[in-house]
Prior knowledge:
With 64 residues, this protein is mainly alpha-helical. Helix content is 84%, strand content 0%. The chain has three helices and no strands. The longest helix is centred in the N-terminal third of the chain and has 22 residues, at 3-24. The radius of gyration is 14 Å and the shape is flat.
Amino acid sequence: MNPRWIAILKLGILLLAVAVLLLIFPRAYEFVAMAARDLRYFWWLVLLLLLGIWLIWGLGAKKK
């Protein structure tokens, strides 16, 4: 498989997982809305999102 297709597939799976979790846990959506209004909580959400992205792409990367 082409590396570009793998990256697109990972991004699609990530977006699908977030959408499913927001449907299953509507309170998570409420938290995100509250976090967007109150930046004291929002930076934690951003850090968790960046950690998830790093774990998906950074941890699985081949060593050079």
